[in-house]
Amino acid sequence: MLKKIETHEARADFLKTLEVRGNMDTGIYAQATRQIVDAVRQEGDAALFRYTKQWDSESLTPANVKVSREETKAAFERLPESLQQAITLAAARIERFHAQQKQKSWMDLKETGEILGQRVTPLEKVGVYVPGGKAAYPSSVLMNVIPAKVAGVKQIVMVTPASKAGTLQDEVLAAAYVAGVDEVYKIGGAQAIAALAFGTETIPKVDKIVGPGNIYVALAKREVFGYVSIDSIAGPSEILIIADESANPTYVAADFLSQAEHDELASAVLITTSKNLAQEVQKEVMRFFEELPRKEILLESLKNYCAIILVEDLEEACQLSNAIAPEHLELAVNAPFEVLTKITNAGAIFLGHYTPEPVGDYMAGPNHVLPTNGTARFFSPLSVDDFIKKSSILSFTKEALMPLADSIIAFAESERLFAHALSVKVRKEGVN
Hints:
By secondary structure, this protein is α/β, with parallel strands linked by helices. The protein has 17 helices and 15 strands. It has three domains: 3-22 and 235-364, Nitrogenase molybdenum iron protein domain (Rossmann fold, 3-Layer(aba) Sandwich), CATH 3.40.50.1980; 27-106 and 120-230, Rossmann fold; 396-428, no CATH class.
């Protein structure tokens, strides 16, 4: 069931499998999603609530779709004290980490009178999508909302699908309360994304939409990109573990399965220099598999997208890891900080034997919204930067402009943009 890869040929075949993982044919879904988005754009609330009644709850109307601050507070107070403390602690740690990312506006003043600078301003309105259904994801609320709050976003609008009875999970509402969400609506699916992108009579239009969702939500975000900004189109979850003989096979196996249980397309890869560790991890994975409840999901994931790869040394392990560019990378090695210097592509890097991936999911503070499907080669985790925009500042006096005038004119004329050149020439010649 779990592949152990020892040859370069087998390794190449497995890497090709990872490359196409998640690249499903979305044609049918895309057509349906486009129809939903277009309908909400044109009809507003009429289409929004028509789709909501069809797929989520028949009881929702413009009058009862919004959740009050008092309701989110009551949901928090209904939680067990241990979970209240966990959500509050996680929120504080996430806020503290992201506060370090804040950028300041700056200006550089020269004696000639030239001023160059950059103005940093937060986005006005941000929409946060939170998945609903049977599962509750309060951590997703915290990770998407708190960086926006730290950035200074003035209005954060959260949408999440309700149950058939028109209710939301207390855990999600409680997290919205702790994170300080401004408005919460019981709306989900592609219709919620369209509502946020274009605005309806009930749902305000936002500048950016963030947060994970199903295939319809992902495709809807793609459809509205350009009308609004989006974070990314998230792919299936993944973990890669680099381990040497110092690693504990029980720990490694548990971490391996922590991502494999997400869904059938999830990937877990162990790259190790130790044949003995590989054998022990394989045994532990099978032992845990018999004990864990999500067997159908685990079976598909382990069979298709999970593997143990044997390599000669940690240098080779790092080269292979950089080629895969994993969402989560654990360095379960004797000298993790030394190995870290060889890593160039990873969403989040977990160092040492006591830094399992779930500590990043819930409590450490860095964001758990990470690039997937190899996009860590060029994308970064969600951060405060995702909720700001930058404007360049330029100011020249005559004394500052004149030394550059001839060069600007030469550039403009080389590009045959003669009016560009003229705007500098008239100033150089002193035309009033």
